[in-house]
């Protein structure tokens, strides 16, 4: 990871948590810690590379992307995979403070 990129939390919805989108569209969602823009990118890692850690199925290596709002480099880590609505609610309650951009805290 380069010195110029901040880390942010990513979410990958699967199964029942992703009923509102095309099943072929497998994306990561994240919020830029610099400007607060909500972004998404195509997921690169297979589901088999995710491991159960801290109560959630996660990819701790993460992925790198660029924010489309402020054009700054981001490292998305961890990427948490959520499978159903109950898991989604539990995740949002657990990571509530990290889902809000740093400039808005």
List the helices and strands and how they pair.
Layout: E1 6-13, E2 27-31, E3 38-42, E4 51-53, E5 56-59, E6 63-66, E7 73-82, H1 85-94, H2 96-99
Parallel strand pairs: 1-7
Antiparallel strand pairs: 1-2, 2-3, 4-5, 5-7, 6-7
Structure description:
With 105 residues, the chain is mainly beta. The protein has one domain. 13% of the residues lie in helices and 37% in strands. It has 2 helices and 7 strands, in the order E-E-E-E-E-E-E-H-H. Strands 1, 2, 3, 4, 5, 6 and 7 form a 7-stranded mixed β-sheet that branches. A hairpin with a 6-residue loop joins strand 6 and strand 7. The protein is globular, with a radius of gyration of 13 Å. The two termini are 25 Å apart. The model has no long low-confidence stretch (mean pLDDT 84).
CA-based gyration radius: 13 Å
Net shape: globular
Question: Helices and strands: which structural class?
Answer: mainly beta
The total of helices stands at 2
Give, in order, the helices and strands: EEEEEEEHH
């Amino acid at each position: 990871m380069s010195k110029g990129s901040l880390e942010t939390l990513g979410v990958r919805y699967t199964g029942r948590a992703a009923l509102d989108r095309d099943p072929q569209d497998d994306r990561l969602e994240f919020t830029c810690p610099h400007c607060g823009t909500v972004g998404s990118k195509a997921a690169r890692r297979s589901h088999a590379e995710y491991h159960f850690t801290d109560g959630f199925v996660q990819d701790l290596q993460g992925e790198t992307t660029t924010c489309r709002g402020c054009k700054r480099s981001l490292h998305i880590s961890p990427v948490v995979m959520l499978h159903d609505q109950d898991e989604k609610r539990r995740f949002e309650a657990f990571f509530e403070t990290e889902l809000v951009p740093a400039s808005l805290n």
